[in-house]
Specification:
Strand content: under 5%
Distance between the termini: 36 Å
Shape: globular
Number of helices: 11
Number of domains: 1
Amino acid sequence: MNWMLIIIGFFTGYLVGLTGVGGGALISLLLLTLVGMPLNAAVGTALLFAAITKGTAMQVYRGYALVDWTVVGILWMGSLSASIATITWVHTMAKIGEDVSFYKQLIASGILVAVMSMFLQPTIETLSKKKFLNNGPGITGLQILLTILAGAALGILVTLTSVGIGALGLIILIQLFPHRMSPPSLVATNIVHAIPLALFGGVGHTFLGNVDLTALGSLLIGSIPGAIFGALTAVLLPHASLRSTLSATLWIFGLQLWWSVLPSSW
């Protein structure tokens, strides 16, 4: 039993339950830097950690009927098929992951995309006002197409690097459905979408021998109660407070990871 990993798991689980962000990139980065875990094992372990931790948080949100299953289904159309294709490619091209610098560049690029996409929010809002996106509860054909494409891109990136499963997923929902969901519903929908995506990638990496089950067990001892506590906090918070928390988390999380990973990737 590793107490450092248990503590890391608790605080990460709380963050995941509260915001839906932090289960993939944060854990993989900590496993790389603090534990010294091999890169492939860090990615595979982080994906399984994210799947189980988010699954725990989902049980809380499901009781409050906050999940937008229509949007989840559209995202899955792109992300799950892309994840399966990516795992197949990784298995076929066995050399992937041996080039550490290439893998780090993928991680840094994923974080950069997450950070830079935040600057697109005004543009998305402008498109929404011009009726390219729906201002109400319905979903337009353009939203469906963009959601499938965004889900596919997310599936590829998450399966390769474990980055973006929470942060990019949340950004996609905020930008493509700016008026459809409340802040708690955004978090719940993002978490539910991420579970099978992380599970597909994690199981695939398990078959490739890229999961440290001992470290995963210690992380989950902390993350499971943390995720429950975080989800209950999100449900009870006023919507304005949760929206501000989500925005701040995305900025801090994205910038911190970008600056910590990008300089070492070139």
